[in-house]
Design goal:
Elements: H1 9-32, H2 37-48, E1 58-59, E2 62-63, H3 68-87, E3 91-93, H4 97-126, H5 140-166, E4 171-174, H6 178-195, H7 200-229, H8 243-268
Parallel strand pairs: 3-4
Antiparallel strand pairs: 1-2
Helix pairs in contact: 1-8, 2-7, 2-8, 3-5, 3-6, 3-7, 4-5, 5-6, 7-8
Length: 279
Amino acid sequence: MQTNPQPSKFETIASWVVPIAAIAAVIAWFVIAPEGALGKLDAIGYAVCHRIDVRSFQINDRQLPLCARCTGEFYAAGLTLLFQAFVSKRKSRLPSRGVLAVLFLFFLAFGIDGTNSYVYLLKQTTGGLSQIPNLYVPNNTLRLFTGSGMGIALAAMLYPVINQTLWRTLDDRPALGWKELGIVTVSIIVINLLILSNSPIVLYPIAYISALGTLSLLLIVFGLLWIIIMRQDNSFEHPRQLWLAFTAGLTLALLLILTIDLFRLQFTGTWGGFPGLSG
């Protein structure tokens, strides 16, 4: 009968040190971040997003933690990962070529709109690049839809990698098929239309989902990195065995966020968008 190997001395020490470090990181996040629940979420968005006011959705003249594009990207990525966790389980193969082609179109739209928007921003703020024509005037609606398309693509590619790294026993089927892609895409489109209503009833949950989606993606990436460094890949049978790896991932994610936050705050002196950038 196969028995589970005894944890190493390092793993035993880590099982005590990592939770303490996680608690310390969470406390530091609460202390350093601006006041209020949305202020704590701002501190997450501040580490990954320019947070330009005019390029963000507003709740009663108070901008969301992330700009329109990042809001779409991270809320869609978070919901798509959650959807696959319930529906796809341990399916570990990348999508079919047809689905990959659609995901590439999402990525291409994100790149084109992002580049066009960036060129427009430079023209508005510096007066440069006048020789480069804009394809169209960028707007938050396009930012939201192209960002959410990128979020779907990101989650669709990440989920099978997560399964390939974690589980001892895998389901060798595509993690995202045409049916699943259709459900996710239609759902995200409906949510986007609700966001564009600018109703606080919709925007408050989206503020939380997008910011926590950002934190979750960082947590997952750092958790997988911990597993690979510890040479524990393909050794897990049950989700409860992952607590240490993903607690380490949370700690590293918060440390990265706090480091970027403190550096940016020191550089700009504001929790808002980069000074001098608007439009």
